[in-house]
Amino acid sequence: MTTETTKGKYNVIGTRPIRHDGYDKVTGRAIYGADVKLPGLLQGAVLRSPHAHANLKSIDTSAAKALPGVHAVVTHHDFPAAEANLVDLGEGAVNFKHASNNVMAEDKVLYKGHPVAAVAAVDKNTALEAAALIKVVYEVLTPVTDVMEALKPGAPILHADLEGQNLGEKIDGQTNQANHIRHEFGDIDAGFAEADLVVEREFTTSMVHQGYIEPHNATATWDEENRVTIWTSTQGSFPTRRQVAGVLRMPDSQVKVIPLEIGGGFGGKIPSYLEPVAAILSRESGRPVKLLMERSSVFEATGPTPGSWMTAKVGVKKDGTITAAHTDIRFEAGAYPGSPVGAAMMCVFSCYDIPNTRIDGYDVVVNRPKTAAYRAPGTTQAAFAMETVIDEIIEELGMDPIEFRIKNASKEGTRRADGPIHPIIGNIETLEAAKASDHWNTPLEKNGPDGILRGRGVASGYWFNIGLKSAVTISVNEDGTVALTEGSTDIGGSRASISMMAAEVLGIPVEDVRPHVADTEGIGYTDVTGGSRTTYATGYASHDAAQDVVSQLRERAAKLWDVDTDEVEFSNGNYQSKSDPELKLSHKELSSKLGSTGGPVVGSASVDPEGAGGAFSTQIADVEIDPETGKTDVVRYTIVQDVGTAIHPAYVEGQMQGAVVQGIGWALNEEYFLNDDGAMVNSSFLDYRMPTTYDLPPIETVIVEVPNPGHPFGVRGVGEVPIVPPVATIANAIHDALGIRLRESPMNAGRIRKALEEKG
Amino acid sequence: MVEKVRVRATLNGEPVDFLVAPYVSLLDTLRDELGLTGTKEGCNDGNCGACTVNLDGRIVDSCCVLGAEIDGSTVETIEGMAEPGQLHPLQQAFLEEAALQCGICTPGFLISAKALLEKDPHPSEHDIRFWLAGNLCRCTGYDKIVKAVQKVADSA
After folding, report:
1. Interface contact B103-A212, CB threshold 8 A
2. ipTM for the whole complex
3. The pLDDT of residue A88
4. Helix ranges (DSSP H) in A444-536
């Protein structure tokens, strides 16, 4: 295979420099949202519903307001009337009526943890004490927390005014079905009729949380000009500005968002929860107010990813050619519409070239927290269904799992089931690299000591990646260094990758680029750090801004030498005259002469690129299972992924490894436990157990580079696709070990024991 | 108002003398009373390790210790991990090995790892994984964290 590689092609790209913000982060100096201190700062507390579903009858805040040290107590009465207005935030849209009701309940509470009031006081304990004095009268209603239950006639209704849609038609009467959409291509019935083997299975997955270690936080001031300033940890300063302004019913320009360092997000720090509440508390108290969310509320009231009910049906010919596929994907949106079912539908069949497809997707409201994006949102669930059925077909046909996938692989020109045609993609290159990997070529001994059984699984995944808007400015300092200003909050080292692209263009060391993440008044509009877009789109802007600098520096050299700008060539960081070899200045030398040639040079670029290019990952897992206890250990794991061009390979590997470990937690252990009243009962890291160092093996990575023609350096997003295959990969490995197929995640010890007992 | 308690301790090698309400955790004492925000809150119930500090030679979750309890004790936080202006070899290794992404768990991991290497300068990969299991990281998948600690152990 001709897997093109960028090795040796660049000076800076492909190296592994120390990230610019790293020193502050290993010494404790880095300032995160919770670290903000302001003169006169008040501490807040949010009172939350103990009920999963109830009408809010009355709220009495008088005792709380009377407590000494309390400066403000607010409820929905203090918020502007919510307006139904749909605005796209990049990775998902928001309806401001729902966003507003989600940050502060209006007439109903829809999940345990739904905010009903908030307090600002001199310190945290006084705020908590005051919150406990607020008297709320609820009319408790029966909750519905399961997607299939919520779709049944007679189910408890969350929103009396929800205008449900079914295949483009408005549903008559009350419903929890926000939407049913369908993608159809070819002739699905003819496709299945043509098949020699058809496998159809049903799957469920449990709701899981992104699990970022830093809880949500927000600090706000509301000043005398009615301008709001927000300090927060967010995946997008500008989308936060839009949400706050939308909820507060003010122009975006009245709100300034200052992003601090962010302690993980994975999609969950795109929505605003505390920011508008802190702003209203500041308005009422006349003081800056800080709100910190407790961990239990992070679980109970912020963005998990949907639990699901799904079917997958695939037909193949004897030779392994897929003839048709159908899937029905039903997602728990949580309290308000807007699950990522659309994204799941875009990805579910996209690893394959299938002539006849139908994809049904349902977005269903249930009494759970409103779901948010979580790393390739919706696609892990869908891949669990699809890749498990594919594995079953491969077993029936007696084919090799990787050869089957190569035979049916989507490639450049293949039409995706939802419409778009794949551009140049690295699906086959990724599969070939998996086939050549050390892991795949190392035989696995199926029987371990003491009755331990081993198995190996394979699965593939696709994520489309997004582009969207980014702005970058680059200012040249007289000593030849440059200051790079961007609007993408840096969650995982993106300052480094974005600086590396500027350094590559300018022909300078990456250490000479000083990156800075600006607030919403310091840079042009920039979308969220999400959708695997940051290194792609903000990197694109960095490249273009650096080219703008080069173009201006050529003009300065021309001015110095009194020649036409066309006479000045630029290569490898040097500016030189085409005709006179004596006239040559390095970037650094030329930078020192800016003062005498017209003043500072500032390059800028604003982009909205459309060639994000999809990404593929194929993964291999070895598991060891103790059949007596049902405990599964992942003992070897290899991720193979097309990343386009690895700008900073260490952080590319880090994205791959981090995503897979989240996927391993999802596959084996993580889930929301609700009691009969619909309340989450495991809202702590003790009971919602995420993988630790001790649960895991080293995670091996194979980087494949099929450059994306839609980016000047060939970048594809890398952060999301690696979480697509893990649940399916582990399900297939468990099957290989035990001969049983689990179609319910998490595949925890109890489920494995039950399945073994049923098998007998 | 509850009367505050006087506390005298050694913090990052320097004597400290302060008043703190008896119900305030060591985590909040460090962050709010003493201005050391390098110690992070992840859960406030002893399950994530983000607030790990070294108390008299033992690593503890500072959210589960009261500020008043450190009277007479020696406490080390991330701010005191290395000599001023220098990096501890673990800090350097975390940078070189890309062992952090968002960085919120990093101070806790560094304090924990330092305690491990002080106890056992040459831990195996298994030892490192066992010791660090009280610190949660959601970004890295731990691979590069374990390798960074291993690198320092191997070069000791």
Report:
1. no
2. 0.98
3. 73
4. 494-506
- Write the burial class of residue A230 (CB in 10 Å: 0-12 exposed, 13-18 middle, 19+ buried): buried
Tell me the domain boundaries of chain B: 5-80, 89-155
Using the Cβ of B50 and the Cβ atoms of chain A, whether some distance falls under 8 Å is answered with yes
Q: Assess B19–A contact: CB distance below 8 Å, yes or no.
A: no
CA separation, residue A141 to residues A138, A149, A176, A513, B119 (Å): 9, 15, 15, 58, 56
pLDDT at position A56, please?
98
Angle at A40 between CA A37 and CA A44, to 5 degrees: 75
Residue matched to tokens 């959708």: A531
CA distance A506 to A514: 13
**The pLDDT value given to residue B52:** 98
CB of B138 within 8 Å of a chain A CB? The answer is: yes
Q: What is the number of other CB atoms lying within 10 angstroms of the CB of residue B119?
A: 11
What gap in Å lies between CA A502 and CA A512, rounded to an integer? Answer: 10
Q: What distance in Å separates residue A611's CA from the closest CA in chain B?
A: 26
Does residue A33 sit at the B interface (CB-CB below 8 Å)? no
Residue A748, phi then psi, degrees to nearest 5: -80, 175
Q: Which residues 109-128 on chain B approach chain A with CB closer than 8 angstroms? A: 110, 125, 128
Across the interface, of B38, B95, B128, the residue whose CB is closest to A29 is B38
Is the bond into A746 cis (omega within 30 degrees of 0)? Answer: yes
Instruction: Report the chain A residue with the minimal C-alpha distance to residue B21.
Output: A125
Q: For residue A264, which residues of chain B lie inside 8 Å, CB to CB?
A: 101-102, 104, 138-139
Radius of gyration, CA atoms only, chain B: 16
Residues from chain A contacting residue B130 (CB–CB below 8 Å): 693-694
The domain over range B89-155 is classified in CATH as 1.10.150.120:
yes
Q: Which fold has domain B5-80?
A: Ubiquitin-like (UB roll) (3.10.20)
Chain A residue nearest residue B43, CA to CA: A295
B100 near A CB under 8 A: yes
* Residues from chain B contacting residue A215 (CB–CB below 8 Å): 41-43
A358-412 residue pLDDT tens = 999 999 999 999 999 999 999 999 999 999 999 999 999 999 999 999 999 999 9
Q: Which residues of chain A have pLDDT under 50?
A: 1-4
Query: Are A40 and A96 contacting, i.e. CB atoms less than 8 angstroms apart?
Result: no
Token match 């918020």: residue? Answer: A79
d(CA A239, CA A99): 13
* Tokens found for residue A659: 């995503």
Q: Under a CB-based contact definition with an 8 Å cutoff, are residues B89 and B152 in contact?
A: yes
Residue written as tokens 């699901």? A308
**Burial of A129 from C-beta contacts in 10 A (0-12 / 13-18 / 19+):** middle
How confident is the model at residue A92, as a pLDDT?
A: 67
H-assigned helices in A669-748: 726-738
**For chain B, which residues score pLDDT lower than 50?**
none
DSSP element (H, E) containing A586: strand A584-586
In B, which residues are within 8 Å of A654 by CB distance? 98, 101, 139-141, 144
Residues 6+ apart with CB under 8 A from A593: A556, A560, A585
Tokens of A642: 């097309």
- Domains of chain A by range and CATH? 22-29+467-607 (3.30.365.10), 35-142+211-301 (3.90.1170.50), 378-462+614-759 (3.30.365.10)
Asked if B102 has any chain A CB less than 8 Å from its own CB, the reply is: yes
- Residue A544: what are its φ and ψ, rounded to 5°? -70, -40
What are the DSSP E strand ranges found in A319-417? 322-334, 356-365
